[in-house]
Amino acid sequence: MAIAKAVKTPVAKKSSTSTMAKKVKKGNKASGKKVLTVQERAKRSQRNGVRSLFARFGFDRIKTDGVHFTFEGRTGEFDEAFVYENVLIMAEYTVGTDTSGHVSKKSMLYNKVAANQPCWMEFAAQTFPDLGRHFAEKNYKSTDYRVFICYFSIAGVSDEYEAGLKSIRFLDGAKLRYFQSLSKAIHHSARYELFSYLGLSGSDIAEGVLKSGSSLGKFEGHVLPESFSSFPEGFKVVSFYADPGTLLKMAYVLRRDSWRDPEGMYQRVLQKGRMSQMRRYLTTEERVFVNNIIVTLPSDTALNNPQHPTKNLNASEITKVRNANIIVPDVPNSIGIVDGQHRVFCYHEGSDRFEAKIKSLRGRQNLLVTGLIYPEHYSEIEKRKFEAKLFLEINDKQKRTGSELKQSIEIILNPYSTTSIAKAVIYRLNSSGPLKGFLQTNYFDPPSLIRTTSIVSYGLKPLLKLDGVDSLYTSWTNKEKSKLKDLQRQRSGEVEEDVLLSKYIEYSAGEVNKLLIGLKRADDQSRWKLQDSPKDRTLTPTFINGIIVCLRLMLTDGKLASAESYEKSFKGVSAFAFSRYKSSAWRKLGEKLYQSHFPK
Hints:
The chain is of the alpha+beta class. Helices cover 44% and strands 15% of the residues. The protein is globular and about 80 Å long.
């Protein structure tokens, strides 16, 4: 039983004379408004951004700030809460730099809330009036609620810290920007992606929690014999019609792990302008798009005999195209859209002038879907590779796929390629060393960070290739390094378990960082900051590629050394005119830097 005490924080009365005097002195003299500090402005911006995000998700805001409480022996407060049907989000905000220290102080309370959700729900409904009214109006018991603690921070926490605090969901950085971008494009329908991030299934949400048994997506369609499809053994190809409303709940927009993996995504982002045009078409023409949607389906998708609904079809019965009931587990992010995402998501639950008509079309119109069911033995890595390859085959022929997109796909298709190794080194450089936090490693990173596409292609790939005197591979002393060449040729291997590849990535990032550290120590420190305007920066892709060219010249001449040695060699480098070298002039920059500071 929760021991509950809750008190509203009293607001101290202030002298009207002294208060006005301070306001006139510190604030806007004309209006008497208080001028906010930098931290106060950051807090307000963060809070407004999160409120707007959850409003687009379709959640109601619950006021909780200023209420101090004691729950199961732990005192505390929450900044805010958001609720959708039976899903409750308790929100905590911070704009400080010591995020880890801040969350550590509150983690014991968070753990108690997470471990005793029904008890917390009853306590919270009594403690927060807005939540109490929601609780009274809905047909849910305290045991029906799914409660999550979401921590919103500016600085973020390390991956290790996040992994150790299982009771908390950290929504910051690229993850938060991903959800913001998605929700602006498809509004309320973006909540299904949030549910997937929270680990919820269809049976956990809204009316699903009130039903007994699992909820399934059932579609009437056709199945093609394996011998007719030419796909690898074990794949099943099906076709069916599906209403957009069902697909919106079950499909994922970008790659499933876009909020987990550092490489981000490989699908093109939903374009808000294109979405609006397609919604206008739907409301004016009132007819469905006729070309088919291509999706992947989970291996536990069942194929039922329409004449015997409880009986599954087996492979021996599928000798020709035949009718089948296609039953997909009703779980958010279970249907992967490989092609046609705009045609599905233009039916989203929006708040625009088209919504009134589109609402009636969501459940009435039907889209033609071609689905590829994975074999049971396919691992997550194999699924990712298959989807990425299929996506590239379809989209590269229709619209030339960009370099950044291809680099992300390359990591999945061939993790031993030089491109993949170079991308991995970029992640390491962004997590430690002079470039920490300065590089774009995710599609949803701010545009103010340094773009890395050209650094991967023209800087790191030549440095990391598995041959040549100007490559770090040649200077690497690992006795088993030749195995990397074999794996690269085979284009195979379980990369997540490959210690050898990780060692080469670690070694390479370390050697690049040594040179950067030595240069930074000897240089004017003001040049190692990200100025607001890219044109005012020293830190540019051209600068970084030039440093890498310098390192390749040092490798050729056998001049690898320590950071301390590089610092001595770069004495006087503050006079070097880095800004003189623009765009693709990195080779000239690197050669000049090498000649000036590492003479033969």
